[in-house]
Design goal:
- The protein has about 180 residues and is of the alpha/beta class.
């Protein structure tokens, strides 16, 4: 299985690292798809620099056909920038339209809302974006560490990572795995 991780500067390190590690441990290949070439700057608690990750591909050059599933890590800056980028929003929209699994944590659902992909869905997130998600038509659940609604898996934040990683591996493993284009 090949998984795209849509992320840019400001990504919350632990939300990218732990999920990528869980997927790779289950045999998946991962690629960081980003807004720019080179390295993306990770953060810890949005405030502290937490190293970098090399971007494997530009989102402008990426296709949903290249991946079986999509991860949307959080942090505040990362998804805020992604939801403002036309190519990133198109990429998310294409995953949703294709019925492929999408997993998002913390502030990560912002690009899903921008892609008009939360309407009628049940999900969870970091508390500060729940009103945004409700306004975009989602049914927001505050008291569950992981919510699965069809192809979408969401979680509240870093404290929920153990349960979230397990749910993501399980849901992604259920997805069809024909070789992407």
């Amino acid at each position: 299985m090949r998984v795209g991780i849509l992320a840019t500067d400001g990504v919350e390190r632990v939300e990218l690292d732990q999920r990528r590690g869980a997927l790779q441990g289950a045999g998946a290949r991962t690629e960081i798809v980003s807004l720019h070439h080179g390295e993306i700057q990770a953060r810890q608690f949005d405030l502290n620099a937490a190293g970098t990750f090399p971007a494997d591909r530009l989102v402008a050059d990426a296709s949903v056909d290249d991946y079986h599933a999509l991860l949307l890590p959080g942090g505040t800056m990362n998804p805020d920038q992604l939801r403002m980028d036309r190519d990133a929003v198109r990429f998310v929209k294409d995953f949703m339209a294709g019925g492929k699994p999408v997993a998002s944590i913390c502030h990560g659902p912002w690009p899903l809302a921008e892609a008009d992909a939360v309407r009628g869905r049940r999900l969870t997130s970091w508390p500060s974006i729940r009103t945004d998600l409700r306004n975009a038509g989602a049914e927001v659940v505050a008291d569950q560490e992981v919510v699965v609604d069809g192809q979408v898996v969401t979680s509240r934040g870093p404290a929920d990572l153990p349960a979230f990683c397990a749910a993501v591996v399980e849901q992604f493993a259920r997805a069809p795995h024909p070789m992407p284009g």
